[in-house]
Design a protein that fits this description.
It is built from 20 helices and 13 strands. With 614 residues, it is α+β, with helices and mostly antiparallel strands. The strands form 3 sheets. It has a 6-stranded antiparallel β-sheet with strand order 3-9-6-5-4-12. Strands 7, 8, 10, 11 and 13 form a 5-stranded antiparallel β-sheet that branches.
Length: 614
């Protein structure tokens, strides 16, 4: 037991670290999720549905409300009057373009309002995030419980009990999503809880108490997300099948099923009634699809489209951060995770085939009847339940792909089950390989050789990818080149600059010294001008590609401010381009005054020499 506690503790540390490293609202739909929480906390009711982009919560007002109700209760005491000031998009926001170079923040993040110690909206968002981290910890522990049904805790292979939990806990995307305000964390937890209770009932039989617990879990699952309703049907079907498998009397299933259904209705029934009254649909599905521009039609799609979407699914399952905008590089990292899954899948197929071919000698109730199929199902019911659960989640995800698109987090409710099946397959292969080696040693080696590097890499994701993507320009002692001198607004001096090309990337670096703390948060404007005066590049943003505010700069500081552009995204240009920069003052709607610079061809714009100019 202490090993699972260590795994959970490691996940909690990583989850909190991710939640601190990722600025607020820089996770998929986090602004909308938190806006729903904030509305409930403020008005004590569910938010109304408006038109697309009319409200900050958008389509989340149609989502099942359990996550929002709990997080609103946890944050109701926090003053969030500054919420609208924290939800401001930066001028060059990046949603869904993982190959666009440069910074990845979609929102502006002012250090005075979002730095530790947290306060106001920033504090409320982090409380919601930390609740998500706790849900993730609960899911990891429940995955361990599920593993005990598949790998009974005997002295033969205790190490593999911890393998599924460790693998799940150290998937970077699982940590990332569970360190954000997101209702996927709730459906992942409640669906895993439901699966664990089903396995408990399958092993030990049904009682009134277990039927009530199952009803509560299913009800919570229904209140977690739309997928929970579909999985509720699957759970109740499996519940009836488990009773019939054990008692073989239809009448034996009536009372427990009615109890589970009644409790489910008590917990979640009000939600369906509300939807029927407001939207004329207990699921509010048609309204949701209309809102997001989806539909239930199944259309023919090209192979290239499917390949692209499968790539997105893979990447966003293992680690695609920000608003689907921050890849782990090099991309062969994803193939390492794929390889582990592929090995497990091969082992699972081979192991399942071996079970089917070998069959079973039956159990006591079937002596002499030759009912080998029944015996096989009865003796491996836990494995079959997990397989069916995983299959159900993947089927729902596949259907949702055609309706509204797919991301890895949408299959997270099936991830614990899928990983347990994967580990079962790996164990099958290890058993075949390790006939002449102490098998427990191989189990430990396999668990450690996969789990430990995954944990270390999950921790390294922060300094390798997340922090650089959102960090402001670094401070430096001096500019490496003294080819500058231009002064803007008598407050900011361009000490020097470099222009470099790295493959298809154009990198412009400016060394900006603070002469006087700026009185306003100017935006920097960068243009590459054609000979005819048209712009090949016209870039306007806050300095640091939207990561820093001039009013926070201190006198004497020098910032290495880099801007990166993918030249493949621009038209080919044979003629020489001219680089000009300046700072824009939104108060006067004009460029700031430029002094101490000779080459001024446009008012208050500094023309800089390109590398091939004298």
């Amino acid at each position: 037991m202490r090993y699972i506690l260590l795994i959970v503790a490691a996940f909690l540390v990583l989850g909190v670290a991710y939640s601190i490293a990722v600025p607020i609202f820089e996770a998929p739909d986090e602004l909308q999720h938190y806006a729903t929480t904030e509305y409930i906390a403020r008005f004590k009711s569910l938010p109304p549905l408006g038109k697309p982009t009319e409200h900050l919560w958008d389509q989340e007002s149609l989502q099942a409300p359990l996550y929002y109700i709990i997080t609103s209760a946890l944050t109701s005491w926090v003053d969030t009057s500054d919420f609208s000031q924290q939800a401001i998009l930066q001028p060059k926001t990046n949603f869904g373009d993982a190959e666009l170079p440069g910074k990845k923040n979609s929102f502006l993040h002012h250090p005075l309002s979002q730095s530790f110690p947290y306060h106001n909206t920033t504090l409320a968002v982090h409380i919601a995030r930390w609740f998500s981290v706790l849900l993730g910890a609960g899911t990891i522990f429940l995955t361990f419980i599920i593993a005990t049904f598949i790998f009974p805790p005997t002295d033969n292979f205790p190490s593999f009990l911890y393998f599924p939990s460790a693998f799940l806990a150290f998937i970077p995307q699982f940590i990332f999503i569970h360190s954000s305000a997101n209702n996927d964390t709730m459906i992942t937890f409640t669906s895993t809880l439901t699966l664990a209770i089903l396995l408990w009932i399958g092993r030990d039989g049904v009682t009134t108490r277990k039927a009530i617990l199952l009803g509560v879990a299913i009800g919570l699952m229904c209140l977690s997300k739309l997928m929970g309703t579909v999985l509720a049907v699957v759970a109740l079907t499996l519940f009836v099948a488990l009773i019939l498998l054990r008692q073989r009397k239809l009448s034996a299933a009536v009372a427990p099923t009615l109890i589970a259904l009644s409790v489910t209705a008590l917990v979640a029934g009000w939600w369906y009634v509300r939807n029927q009254i407001i939207y004329g649909d207990p699921l509010a599905l048609n309204v949701f699809l209309k809102f997001v521009g989806g539909n239930l039609d199944i259309k023919l799609v090209s192979f290239n489209f499917l390949d692209e979407q499968f790539r997105l699914l893979r990447f966003s399952t293992w680690g695609l951060f920000g608003h689907i905008s921050l890849l782990m590089t090099p991309t062969w990292i994803y193939s390492l995770y794929d390889a582990i899954v592929l090995i497990g899948a091969i082992g699972f197929v081979l192991g399942l085939a071996r079970l089917i071919i070998k069959g079973n000698n039956g159990h006591e109730g079937d002596k002499g009847k030759g009912n080998r199929l029944f015996a096989l199902i009865f003796n491996h019911q836990s494995l079959i339940i997990v397989l069916l659960w995983f299959g159900a989640v993947m089927a729902v995800a596949a259907r949702w792909f055609f309706a509204a698109g797919i991301q890895g987090r949408l299959i997270f409710p099936g991830l614990p089950a899928g990983i347990v099946l994967m580990v079962w397959g790996i164990k099958f292969l290890v058993d075949r390989i390790g006939r002449d080696v102490p098998v427990e040693r191989l189990y430990k080696m396999t668990t450690l050789c996969i789990g430990l590097p995954m944990m270390l890499f999950a921790g390294a994701v922060i300094p390798l990818y997340i922090s650089p993507a959102y960090s402001p320009p670094p401070l430096v002692a001096a500019s490496p080149l003294n080819n500058g001198g231009a002064i803007f607004a008598d407050e900011i001096k361009l000490n020097g600059y470099t222009i470099a090309r790295d493959g298809d990337l154009l990198k412009l670096t400016f060394y900006l010294e603070t002469i006087k703390t700026p009185s306003h948060d100017y935006t920097i404007a960068i243009r590459l001008v054609r000979p005819d005066g048209s712009f090949w590049l016209d870039y306007v943003n806050f300095p640091g590609m939207g990561t820093t505010f001039p009013t926070t700069w201190r006198v004497g500081e020098i910032r290495q401010d880099e801007y990166v552009f993918d030249m493949r995204r621009f038209s080919k240009e044979e003629k020489p381009l001219r680089l000009i920069i300046g700072f824009f003052d939104s108060r006067s709607r004009a460029m700031t005054p430029l002094t101490n610079w000779n080459d001024v061809r446009e008012k208050d714009w500094a023309t800089l020499k390109m590398n091939n100019e004298e």
